[in-house]
Amino acid sequence: MALKKISALQLILVLSAVLFAAGIWWGLPDGRGWAPDELTPSIVVDGLRRLFSHGWFGRYPPFHFYLLSLLYAPLLILHKLRALDLRQLSNYAILFYIGRALSVLMGTGLVYLIYKTGREIFDRRAALGAALIAALTVPLEYYAKMVNLDVPYLFWFTASLFFYVRILKTARLKYYLLFAATAVIAVCTKDQAYGLYLLAPLPMIYFDAGRKRRAAPNLSWVRSLWDRKYLWAVLLGAGLFALLHNFAFNFQGFLRHVSLITGGASESYRIFPHSISGEIKLLGLTVRQIQGSLGWPLFFLCLAGLAIVLVRKKESSILRSLPVFALSYYLTYIALILFNCDRYNLPLCLLLSFFGGRAISAIWDAAPARFRSAEIAILAIVFVFSAFSSLSVDALMIADSRYGVERWMDRNIPAEAVIGLAGPVEYAPRQNSFHWVSLPLSLAEFQKGPKPDYIVFASAYGQGFAEGTPEREFFSGFAAAGDKYRLVLRSRTDIPWLVVRYRNVGTNVDAINPEIQVYKRSSPARERRP
Hints:
Blueprint (H helix, E strand, L loop, with lengths): L1 H20 L19 H9 L13 H18 L8 H33 L2 H12 L2 H6 L6 H21 L2 H15 L13 H15 L5 H4 L3 H17 L2 H16 L1 H4 L8 H19 L1 H16 L5 H5 L1 H15 L8 H21 L5 H27 L2 H12 L5 E5 L12 E4 L4 H6 L5 E5 L11 H8 L7 E7 L24 E6 L9
Parallel strand pairs: 1-2, 1-3
Antiparallel strand pairs: 3-5, 4-5
């Protein structure tokens, strides 16, 4: 029986690791890769050269930079000794693989922490269900193999969640300190994590005060709210935050980072107005994105579990307190930036996974024994469907259309040809051969400038621009612009057996397997290179 219990968890962890690692080579070798916002090795190495001091700053906090620097160090030393040339793409790609492998490891660890936290709250069946739901959350399959900072900060968040539950159960000082440390590391990995914690002290203080009053009924509420453990946790958190942000040698860089993320880095993404109607639309978008990330079956399962926990009086008070993290995150982050995408909702999906696990356990316990086989069959269908949704990300990454486009270009385009790129490199074939130039995303501007021999772009990228913008007009109207270009290739990989496809509103996953269009100039310009 013990072996059976271990095997169930091991199977989920192996499944997670395989799903997360499949396609880890996507877009490599390359200097940039195809993942939007991925932390490239060159960015990390640039910070390391400056020792993350003397005014260094970027869009993201420094903690994951430190981890990557430690892992890169052996190769960087070999490069310094001229035993390895990291300027070669094949060697540079090793740094990419190291960063991506770390994400796979942290993603798998995240699933394990969901299980461990679940076991602190409810039975093994519910904990396994929560871990499996987390593992099959579709955007996680993508981000768990990229060097984006979403999975790293979520790993530290789930670690802090485990210590949070231990605080509510034991009120021991070490768990307060561990919670403070992991929460600070999460925020120092990706700033948006701050939103998860602003309301988190409330249930901790409430549970602790209730415990004290049960032990000493005459103790007033005011006196029960004070405890030195809170002070030690705050001091540790503040000190660790200052240490990780390198206040001693890079306080100016920290201020610049804060200025960046509170200014242009956030305002440029805002899509809803500061109004009641804007907040309602944002909430609707958030719900649609969560549903798209979980899929309908798991979405309903999680909602059912949430309803069970909120309605039934005998449910765990600890489980009932978990929505505080979601409420805190939404009110103090999402609702303020007035923008959302599927990866921003990953912490909400992970929190919902606990309620989905509780629903599985509740349904299992409530169903008569004679319906057990039917119940197993239904759950199997739900999770197989969800697994196919997750598998769609991996399959399309492995068979990405751009691999075929690159082979076609090598066979059909002369080596001296000038290739015009319309749009970002993340949506284009790799630019390791040919002479590439960037094009203005405006038909009027394009008509004025020199014309390349070929033009390459992903049609889906243009759909992200609003109607009436020059960029939308460029992508939708280029074929009819009549500038002596003709379409010579339209490519997008189709996998017929993959009947479940991930489609969500506001996602970077659409950078996988984009439709690529290649146009050739009918009468090449006399001057070939712009």
